[in-house]
Amino acid sequence: MPVTLDEIIFEHRNKNYGAYELRKTYTSTVNRAMWIGITLFSALFITSYIFAHQKDKEEKVTIVELNPGLIKPDEIPPVEPLPEPEPPREVERARTIQYVAPEVVQNTEEEIPPPTPEEMETAVISTATTPGEDATSIITEAPPAIAPPVETKIAEVEDENKEFITVEVNPSFVGGTSELYKFLGKTLQYPSAAQRNNVGGRVYMSFVIEKDGSITDVKVVKGVGFGLDEEATRVVKLMPKWIPGKQNGRNVRVRFTLPVTFKLE
């Protein structure tokens, strides 16, 4: 028996592993697969050929002629003529009498002579003449005098603790705005948290300047964070007394808003 290439390759190797058997049956396996493929391809080709030829056959079309019967329209009944209107009846006229409007005639009244000056001195002027005593002998009493109404003014009581937003004389820092900036520059300390994060900005503070100029009710209206709000609050509370605002010539409480700017250089 001649020695094949597979025997040489698998000499001293495990032939039961499976690779040896595959190499041995490789040729027969390929031939079997080829013939199966040829068979399937041929069957597919023949089937498509038969189907195409069957589709090309012309279908017979039968034409059926329909002869519908004529439908007679419904007979319309004749329109009856309208009856002629009756002639208008003559209305009998009633008897009439002419009416003459009565004429308006002015009445002739007796002319009353005007009173003499002597009669007017002892009588009261009126629209008619009536008998009575002389006017000089009648004592008439004057109506009682009515005192004019007394106007009472209600004193307006203003709330002593009222907060004003706008006043006639605004409150001011002692020494002016320049002194206020100097105070803020000396007192403010930049928070370390804001320095580390390179944060700056403007903190809007709101507070009340009392009648004596002291600072109360300190609030942060708009903050930045990172310790800047707390530092601005601390400095505002340390401010000295301001010159208080005035309304109607007296000191009043005024709500004031101050922007405090933090900037890294």
Automatic annotation (TrEMBL):
Membrane-spanning ranges: 33-52
Membrane topology classification: Single-pass membrane protein
Main location: membrane
InterPro entries: TonB (IPR003538), TonB-dependent_transducer (IPR051045), TonB/TolA_C (IPR006260), TonB_C (IPR037682)
Ranges of residues in domain TonB C-terminal: 175-265
UniProt GO molecular function: energy transducer activity
Keyword field: Cell inner membrane, Cell membrane, Membrane, Protein transport, Transmembrane, Transmembrane helix, Transport
Localization annotation: Cell inner membrane
GO biological process: protein transport; siderophore transport; transmembrane transport
Record Gene3D superfamilies: 3.30.1150.10
PROSITE patterns, alphabetized: TONB_CTD
Classification via SUPFAM superfamilies: TolA/TonB C-terminal domain (SSF74653)
Amino-acid biosynthesis is among the record's keywords: no
GO cellular component annotations of the record: outer membrane-bounded periplasmic space; plasma membrane protein complex
Stored Pfam families: TonB_C
Record-stated family: Belongs to the TonB family.
NCBIfam families: tonB_Cterm
The protein's name in its UniProt record: Energy transducer TonB
Organism: Emticicia agri
